[in-house]
Predict the structure.
Amino acid sequence: MNIFKDPVLLVFSLLGLGLVTWLVFYYLDKTRWRKVSPWSYIVLSVMVIISAFPFYWMFIVASNGNEEISKNPPTLVPGGRFLILMGHVFDAAPTFGLSILNTIFVGTTIAVAQVIFSAIAGFAFAKLNFKGRKFLVLFVIGTMMLPSQLGIIPLFMIVNNLGWGSTLTAIVVPALVTAFGVFWMRQIIDAQIPNELLEAASIDGAGVIRVFRSVVLPIIAQSSFVLGLFAFLGTWNDFLWPLLILNDPNQFTVQVAVNQLSASYTIDYALVLGGAFLATAPLLLLFILVGRQLVSGVMDGAVKG
Amino acid sequence: MATATKKPQTPWRVSTQAPAKKKKSQKAPDGAVVKSLNGNWGYLFTAPFVVMFLVFGLAPVVYSVYIAFFQWDPLDMTHTFVGIANFQRVVADDQFWLAVRNTFSIWALSTFPQMLMAIALANVLRNPRLKFKTFWRTMLLVPNITSVLAVAIVFGQLFSRDFGLVNLAREWLGMPNHINFVSETIPGHIAIATMITWRWLGYNALIFLAAMLAVPNELYEAAAIDGASSWRQFTNVTLPGIRNTITFVLVVGTIGGLQVFAEPLTLAGGESGGDSRQFSTLTLFLFEQAHMGNWGYAATIGIMITFIVLIISGINFFFTRRIANGENVQ
Amino acid sequence: MKKLIARVAATAVALALPLSMVAPAHATAAPVTISVWTYGNVIEPQALIDYKKIHPEITIQLKKSGLDAHHQSLITSFLANKTPDIAAVEVSYSGYFRSYPQYFTDLRQAPYNSGSIQSNYLPWRWAQGVGYEGTVFGIPTDVGGMEVAYRTDLFKAHGLPTDRTKVGKLWPTWDAFFNTGKLYQKHLSKAEKASCTKLKVCYGFIDNAGTVYNAVLNQGTQKYYQNDGTKDGKLIYATNPQVSKAFQTTANALASGVGTNINSFTNDWNVGMNKGIFATILAPAWMMDYIKQQAPKTKGKWDIASLPGGGGNLGGSQLTIPKSAAHKSQAWDFIKWYLSPAEQLAIFKKYGLFPSTSVLYNNPALKNYKDPFFNNAPVGAIYGASVQTLHPIYEGKKERAIDNIIGQALSRVGLKKQSAAAAWAQALNEIKNAVG
């Protein structure tokens, strides 16, 4: 029974997907330059609802408590217990507020450092003539392929031998540079800054540092901001490494704090999702403020070429 | 790579990219350096990256290669050198190959439908007359910033067998038999693929959107004058224009797909990946072994993952070149 | 824009409020901070508040992780020589750590002299904190004594008695328990049966027959390992009749169809508890609190009857002091206080964690304790009697991994993916690969 059911289910869902995709292409292409089909708005609205649903669900669970969501069918409207639950979150993880501050600090430091180190290294790889450049570029690309889990245990030993066990330093320092960031900046600089511009500046007598500061930096400012933002978001949501290395509740990052809320035998869903909501809210706030830049940043790398 | 920090995905255009031919002459060909700048600054500029990366990125990897030749229980004082025994074990290990199968199955289910949908979405977003453009684009990125931990719990609830919303919705739509996502292989893989698709769909749609916007309007106009239907315009103009982006999304999706971890862990409820190990992905398998105290074997699995990524990247590179060449011929 | 600012301001206030709540407000002479790593609720929050009153100079930093994550962090902390002052070790991992007593403080030695308090505790619980060569590395916390929690209303509706002594007499043995289950299933209403055929949401006697496995296994005297005085112990999982008996009993139970196949602690389980999808749960003492939290509306509908085949146990922890702990004497003071009979009694009353301190079992405060949520069942007396029937059982090094593999095998049997014999053979094979 199952043997037949599974592939059928699979084929049907794929066919369904294909059909929807084709319809969307067909109707939208047809009306492309004249008017926007109402289907566009329907499709987009559905997508937005789906995108926001888990976040909304966290709030529902957090504001209703376990008992309410254990109903069948479950409640889909927010309840009135949100503040009570927030109290429980702070009872269970008294340093939750501090964790948010820690994460902001760690995230900002990592973001700034990654931008600076990636920008200068990316600039060197893209525009400067030095021995070993090509090899290093290949090396960077190669290391991007390595799965991050591979080195996590030895990294733990290294960081502890340096005496950084259970400190925020252990979170910050290994994340100061990434091969990805360097590669990304190299691509941006390569694509966005014509050599002629740099040559003109250097013929006017500007040294490398001045060229970088007054010519390169202004052009890559927007992309740098986006790289920094991604580094910040990544740090905010990372939990494997911080969970491993951080012990002191005063040093917890926000995801570790959320993890504190989930017990072993038993998961109090309202508590965990309430914490998760609290942990995501600042990010959403940031997102409302800079979402526009983020969107253009994501698209930036793709447009220029 | 130095840490488990989530890497943002970003597109790059392979420099042989053709459609914007007019712009090409303005741009320096890839790899050309500015001779008039003092190259020695390059050492200084790259030094922080290289040094830090060697210590925190490469050294751990090299060390784990060393561990792979031992039977290494973490708390033991001495570790037994076993030569290539771990490697012999891994090639013969059914559980490893099962993990390979699961990883690729989840990868395929999450990548291809997602690509179709992302391209379709991008096509919707492309319309210049669309209202609230920024709003739509921003909202599509929301899944990307929501924490994996939280999302995994939420989806775990949605997909639960008896009272999950997905099954309740199916019941409501007239499909009464509840699917046991936790124990059945393919529905479970579809559930995991859904979580991944949910997270990355909007992001990839924006990448495709950017690529589509870069396709010059003149090409469409020329096609329209030739009397091409809009479907043909799409296949003949849009698709070739975003070909490299498709490759890019595939490559990045593959690397990310091989590291799938949090989603199957939550759905399976344990590191062994479900009763028939049907959710045991490669990364989950690595962690399972490490947590059983088999660090040597876990390191071996890590090396195998690296090999697989390299092979796939090689294949991808090969195809990218062929596509690029094909385009030039065209 | 105004809206946006209002939103930002509102969020800022919401964030700032809790921050001010957690501002530290202690200032005493010679303050010491001891770090404690646990999972779940081994250290109950009330205890920290109480301890603060006695020892205002001590600040206790609690780090909680999931069960597996907690023990893995402990291992890594040993490697880095950067350990907490107190670490909880759960029974399923105590087998692993007893192979490595050199990482813990030997509590037999002065100034700890654990021998002086040993007689307070259940002997078999005490033994779970003893290293392979005799070191005492941990003091027992609660004991997960196991009984059957059942729904009186559902029993009545399905033709079974409701009085706890009568119910207990229904199932002196496991076979009788499953036969009772079949009787229950016979009285399922039409709607309940239809739900199973149509929706595949099945009503049943027990939540998951797979939970029987651990109950049966723990009623024996040996599990997967035998203590032969060596660090790793001797593997006997394949030959120990108790293991195959537990497996067979569970497989039979699964085949008899008296369970709903809903796994414990899942979303479905929580909902099922509220909706009365299943009528019995094999409940360790600590689970009572969970049931109260998840299904408060079922108050008074539950009762507790004795477990088939004698007493049972699931879970329980030891508190340990790692060797490189920085504040050993303060850590020991806290452990001695927290695990003392008096404090354990207080914890039992508040949270339902059943104490390992056997000196309490004849204490009227415990013995006469009745829980209104469970129809005023004398839970203190019931669980107390149960845990005293158990024998010391040697927990082995990689027990957790073996438990997982057998759990998966039973799961396959329950889902009818495999026959019991095939699942058993596959499990043996997998265990061999995993632990040698």
Observations:
- The beta strands of chain C are 32-39, 58-65, 86-90, 138-151, 204-206, 225-226, 234-235, 278-284, 302-305, 313-320.
- Confidence is low (pLDDT under 50) at residues 1-28 of chain C.
